[in-house]
Amino acid sequence: MAHYRASESKREQFRRYLEKNGVLDSLTTVLVALYEETEKPSNALDFIKHQLGVAPEDDDAESLRLELNTLQQKYDQLVEENKDLRDRLLRYEPAQEGTE
C-alpha cells in the first residue's frame, strides 16, 4: 500500500509541475483547437506543432542550407586569402632548402 501512495505522490507532484509551468493550459488549448476544427487535419501532430509554435522541419532544413552556403562561401574566401598570403610571404621570404 505504501508503494501505491508513493507513486500517487510523484504523479501529483508531476501534475503540479506541469500545471505551474503552463503545460497543461497549452496542451488543453491546442487539443480544444484540434477538436473544434471542422475539417480535421491529415497530420494531427503537425497541427499541434504549428499551434505550439514549433517551426516546421522544412524551415529548419532551409535555414541550415542557407547557413551552409554562407559558411562555404566564407571558407572559400578564406582559403583564397590564405593562398594569396602564402604566395606573398614566399616572395619576401623564399623557402629555405630542406624545409617546407
Automatic annotation (TrEMBL):
Transmembrane segments: none annotated. The keyword 4Fe-4S does not apply. It is found in: Nucleus. Residues 61-88 form a coiled coil. InterPro entries: AMY1 (IPR026060). The keyword DNA damage does not apply. Belongs to the AMY1 family. Keywords: Coiled coil, Nucleus. This is MYC binding protein. One of its GO terms (molecular function) is transcription coactivator activity. Its main location: nucleus. GO terms for cellular component: nucleus.
